[in-house]
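[Meeting: bench + compute handoff]

Bench side (C.D.) handed over the final construct sequence. Compute side (W.E.) agreed to return the predicted structure before the next meeting so the bench team could plan truncations. Sequence as handed over:
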Amino acid sequence: MNAPVGPLTESPVLSQPYLLFLGDTAEPGFAKTAFGLRDWAPDKCVGELRLTGATVSTGLTAMTPAEARAQGARAMVIGVANQGGVIPPAWRASLIEALEAGLDLIAGMHMRLADMPEVAAAAQRLGRRLFDVRVPPADIPIATGRKRSGKRLLTVGTDCALGKKYTALALAAAFTARGVDTDFRASGQTGIMIAGGGIPMDAVVSDFEAGAAEILSPDAPDDHWDIIEGQGSLAHPAYAAVSLGLLHGSQPDVFVVCHEPGRTVMLGTAGYSVASIEEIVELTIALGRRTNPAIRCGGFAFNTSALDPAEAEALMARESERLGLPVADPVRRGPAFDALVSSCLG
């Protein structure tokens, strides 16, 4: 039961750089894949393609697939993760246009590119490749609960799509800058596209969630840190299952709570209010102690993108005093973020 788990199947090498496809998206929270690639892999992004009706933009140059191919793009990425992970019929002509322009296709949706007959046929006819990133490996074991060597940090959230990936990436970079041996462990499609590997946790069958989290962060030297990208929220009425499996399997020594001040309703729900920071701390400790009795909160990461700098700084200072731990915006960085890093490292 407590034998070490085996290695994961290696992820395929994705075609790069990318044209980011935003479809007709009007909800910024659903375009986190495109924004994540723009912010954390800018050298891999050539431009964007939006359809009529889209109100969300990455700010990159608008391009047709042919123009992107001429600028060096080698694949078009569906930069949207909508509810249910569905590829609407209205998008499919653009996907085929990209194939005809010489681009491969990359998607992180629950609906697979390879399962759409017209897209699969076009790819085969044109000799193009289809990458479905949101496909977990086939060799995931059931969790053992075995305590692994090394140290782990997990980002958790009061809701979905508010900064867990950004926080994990920023903390991993900061740990590395301090000379700490660190790996970022991607658990979602965008993180996998950025890191080049990982496990799409929300595509794993529930019985194997914790097992997937165990092999995502394997045994490591005692001074090594795995910074694990969180998913969903323990308080979300739809997505709590993936959050709990990730928490139990990753056995974090430290967790950081991610929160967006001003958000009142949980993303994609009808009338469920966003959980309080205190509720998430309480839930995470109570449930996380099952596999790591020493779990602790290292602090809080706020997404203050809707606030001006002075307002954000004042709010985070007040909340830090109230909560008794560092509060920082991992995008704005600064002394507050340095304090968060120090707190996490202990």
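W.E. noted at the follow-up: The CA atoms of residues 31 and 80 lie 4 Å apart. C.D. will use this when planning the next construct.
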